[in-house]
Specification:
about 260 residues, alpha/beta, four-stranded antiparallel beta sheet, globular, binds adenosine-5'-diphosphate
């Protein structure tokens, strides 16, 4: 099923194996520019693996992934397709922002330095430019007053908001969120969800692996249900979350506590 006429992210027949284990089984997914897609499904269904493949953190075993005008992990010259080297992969990754469950901030750097690190080290922006943009982003996520704090001095929700600001600092073309609220205390979940919603409202193309069905309903246009490395059902979020067609998706949603209201 095509999710939009404007296919900005194109995942085609992607297979990912770990030894004999097949984590992704010919996954195909198109996402239009500015769309927001929730990935749901049981633990181990391949959501995180799919996001990691889109960010070239994992090398796919078969298929192709294209973001905008580039093919993730590869360079094409005529009929030849070559795996990119480490520095070219890193350059590609600049365009794909990723937010992890466990924040992954640099512990020895302040919040501002974390946000400035990509623009300074990868994009070679000037310190003044990187600082100005870093402060703007910290203010955008409500943490202007925490610029000098180290990650250990921040709550989980605040750390995750810094991580989102850090990803945005690279002006990504797409943002991937891998269970962004799973490691948070319940009282800080909402502040992170509000920031993610703000990113969505800015027109960012987003994929969010989440177990927060209420959030999936509010932030995503489309929901994709995965199981055993396959997309089992996808469509408008209101449809998939409230009246799924497949028995597998129905059973998954029925087994959750805190279903969408
Ligand atoms: P989800 O995000 O839906 O919980 P994952 O994508 O993390 O699922 O995992 C999908 C499957 O792939 C799981 O069975 C997991 O154990 C397996 N897997 C993920 N990463 C690796 C790895 N590096 N080596 C071996 N198996 C892995």
């Amino acid at each position: 099923m095509q999710l939009s006429n404007d296919r900005f992210l194109r995942v085609s027949g992607v297979v990912k194996t770990y030894g004999d284990y097949i984590a992704l089984r010919a996954v195909s997914l198109d996402v239009g520019k500015g769309s927001s897609v929730a990935l749901i499904g049981p633990s181990g269904s391949g959501k995180s693996t799919l996001l990691r493949c889109i960010n070239a953190l994992e090398e796919i075993s078969d298929g192709t992934i294209e973001v905008g005008d580039f093919e993730v992990g590869y360079r094409r010259a005529g009929h030849h397709r070559r795996r990119l080297g480490a520095s070219a992969l890193a350059a590609q990754r600049e365009h794909v922002g990723m937010v992890f469950q466990s924040f992954n901030l640099f512990p020895h750097m302040t919040a501002l330095d974390n946000v400035m690190s990509g623009p300074l080290l990868v994009r070679r922006e000037s310190v003044d430019t990187a600082r100005k943009k870093g402060m703007q982003l910290l203010e955008r996520v409500g943490l202007g007053s925490k610029a000098s704090s180290f990650p250990r001095q921040l709550s989980g929700g605040q750390q995750q908001r810094v991580a989102i600001a850090r990803a945005l600092a690279m002006d990504p073309q797409i943002m991937l969120f891998d269970e962004p609220t799973s490691a948070l205390d319940p009282e800080t979940v909402q502040e992170v969800l509000n920031v993610i919603r703000d990113v969505r409202d800015s027109g960012m193309t987003m994929l969010i692996a989440t177990h927060e069905m209420e959030f999936a309903r509010h932030v995503s246009d489309t929901t994709v249900f995965m199981e055993t490395g396959q997309i089992v059902e996808q469509g408008e979020s209101s449809k998939v979350l409230f009246s799924p067609e497949t028995g597998r998706c129905k059973r998954f949603l029925a087994g959750l506590t805190g279903q969408p209201a």
